[in-house]
Design goal:
The chain is of the alpha/beta class. It contains 8 helices and 12 strands. It has 2 domains: 121 residues, Rossmann fold (3-Layer(aba) Sandwich); 100 residues, Arc Repressor Mutant, subunit A (Orthogonal Bundle). The strands form 3 sheets. The protein has a 5-stranded parallel β-sheet, sandwiched between helices. Strands 6-7-8-9 form a 4-stranded antiparallel β-sheet, with helices on one face.
Amino acid sequence: MTDLPQPRAILLVEDDPALALGLTDTLSFEGFKVSHSRTGQDAITYLKEERPDCIILDLMLPDINGYQVCKTVREQDPTIPILMLTARSQEADKIRGLEAGADDYVTKPFSIGELVARIRALFRRADHAKSTEAQRPFAIGDSTVEPAAHTLVCDGVEHQLSFYEVELLKLLYSRKGQPVNRDEILDEIWGVEAHPTNRTVDNFIVKLRRKIEPHPEKPRHIVTVYGVGYKLVL
């Protein structure tokens, strides 16, 4: 007899009892195994003992906010997919969530269909990122990128990389020496579900330059191609 695949485990961090109950029931019906934490601190404590396959994280919590929870989770685990729930629609809040380590976000009110589609998209991207070919280390100048460990080592200093930082570097490396426009980067890495903006790409490039470039203000490796996007020069 073949063992049945285990359901994907989701940690839901949400302080609204009615919304938490509704999401738990719906996601369970969709075939996920759902655990629930009401506060950010409860979630952090839970994650010390368990590793879910995905975290759905509300931004506004009664103790510490979702940004802080996200940063704490990323310090412990750079690879676990995090989808942030927010009632805010401002671009700056979305960018802040992505920079804190969230992989995607949904703005309230949202449909269950949209939420489930984004969760499944996160799992597809995470599964692809784990493939053997996608995990091979590569060098950029004096830096070595280890996709499997989500790290970058430059001049003996190790830097943690988020999921999107790794994917962005892998895309640029696969097209090294060629300009890659922002729209293509958004489509290839974030996909249509995330609805990010060109500014999102620019913000991630700034973060990566700080880790790779000897002089980030005068980049030699991640070069801006004005009017197009970016080019990786080894």
